[in-house]
From TrEMBL:
Belongs to the glycosyltransferase 2 family. This is Dolichol-phosphate mannosyltransferase. GO terms for cellular component: membrane. InterPro entries: DPM1-like, Glyco_trans_2-like, Nucleotide-diphossugar_trans.
């Protein structure tokens, strides 16, 4: 740790990412050497946790939070955020392990939050000018664009990639949330977090990224995750328009 302390904690949830995890750790630390990285692994049968444990033994910027079984992306991030808040990191970052999120955009995203006190969240966005997707099957692109258009309309929120999982939060904004009440499992976790930042009156900026489909390993996306997100977004939309604001 430098005298100034680490700039950020990059939280990376993993489930069966043995082929990807080493590369993502190298890419993150290459792009932001002053950051720390916490991998939250859910007892991956493919030994992802063992790989991270070995890397962590060599580099004190790398940490492993090993959980016993597949408990879902949302709870993995909440566990990682709590770990980071307890240790006083000023910024908390969300990033997938599958290589979809370009680590070289982290400096721009971190800058967007650090350079303006009013900004509480920077989203690495596929669906703003300058953003793009590479090698993504058409059905995934249609699903993501459709879900985001629907969410923007129903929630009345000006974010173009509200399901994105590549994010930099000001830690104080996460600290101000009641993390106990987050029970979203899939993509709607990202929507939930966005609404919670919005409810604090914080500004959200979108930094364009080039998103790549995963090359190794298999997707954990499921029909259930899509249905959960649709139902939740619709429910939150009604609440925001007609009643309780989140
Ligand atoms: N700890 C933990 N990590 C998970 C869980 N489910 C998914 N992940 C990780 O969360 C990240 C995103 O999952 P992906 O399977 O890539 O989901 P996705 O990006 O929506 O799907 P693709 O676009 O097909 O890759 C990856 O790093 C996964 O390994 C889980 O239950 N627990
Ligand atoms: Mg992915």
């Amino acid at each position: 740790m430098t005298t100034q302390g680490p700039t950020a904690l990059v939280v990376v949830p993993t489930y069966d990412e043995a082929e990807n995890v080493r590369g993502i750790i190298e890419a993150v630390l290459g792009a932001v050497p002053a950051a720390h990285l916490l991998v939250v692994d859910d007892g991956s049968p493919d030994g992802t946790g063992d790989i991270v444990r070995a890397v962590a033994a060599e580099d004190d910027r790398v940490h492993l939070l090993q959980r016993s079984g597949k408990l879902g992306l949302g709870t993995a991030y909440v566990a990682g955020f709590r770990w980071g808040l307890e240790r006083g990191y000023p910024l908390l970052v969300e990033m997938d392990a599958d290589g979809s999120h370009p680590a070289d955009r982290l400096p721009a995203m971190i800058d967007a939050v650090r350079s303006d006190d009013g900004v509480l969240l920077a989203i690495g966005s596929r669906w703003v000018a300058g953003g793009s997707v590479v090698d993504w099957p058409l059905r995934r692109e249609v699903l993501s664009r459709g879900a985001n258009t629907y969410a923007r309309f129903v929630l009345g929120i000006g974010v173009h990639d509200v399901t994105a999982g590549f994010r930099v939060y000001r830690a104080s904004a996460v600290a101000a949330m009641d993390l106990d009440t987050i029970d979203s499992k899939g993509y709607c976790f990202q929507v939930d977090m966005t609404l919670r930042v919005d409810a604090q009156g914080g500004r959200i900026v979108e930094v364009p990224i080039r998103f790549r489909d995963r090359v190794h390993g298999v997707s954990k996306m499921s029909g259930g995750i899509v249905v959960e997100a649709m139902l939740r977004v619709t429910q939150w939309g009604f609440q925001r328009r007609f009643g309780r604001r989140r």
